[in-house]
């Protein structure tokens, strides 16, 4: 390989990264208006069970919530697959993939739940980017 060339990320690399970092991801929080908010700096969201299942307002089950967050994480992981290891996983752009996964979830839960993905570039930040997932109930 030439100077600076890296091997591509494999499924095992991504699984190892997720297993190592899942517990460090910020937990979901309940914000104004009964909205659930999740935050990430690396493109992956914490899919752990909510602190209180009442946050779901009987519009989704705990299992559906977990599957929805995992859907986003799996789509993002797939986007990283094959990308050069010259960039750390947390620095690989993933917002477009997350946005598409959220659109898929909005189609699936239409009329019950609305997902909103927001991505920001942070000036003077160690992490550089932050992304948020908001889950609202109809």
- Structural class per helix/strand content? alpha+beta
Oligomer description? single chain
**Spatial strand arrangement across the major sheet:** 1-2-4-3
Mass-distribution shape: elongated
Strand content: 15-25%
Order of helices and strands: HEEHHEE
Largest beta sheet, briefly?
Answer: 4 strands, antiparallel
Computed Rg = 16 Å
Q: Number of helix segments?
A: 3
In brief:
The chain has about 140 residues and is α+β, with helices and mostly antiparallel strands. Helix content is about 30%, strand content about 20%.
Question: Could you characterize what this model shows?
Answer:
With 138 residues, the chain is an alpha+beta fold. The chain has one domain. It contains three helices and four strands; from the N terminus they run H-E-E-H-H-E-E. It has a four-stranded antiparallel beta sheet. A hairpin with a 7-residue loop joins strand 3 and strand 4. Helix 2 runs antiparallel to helix 3. The radius of gyration is 16 Å and the shape is elongated. The chain starts with 10 loop residues before the first helix and ends with a strand.
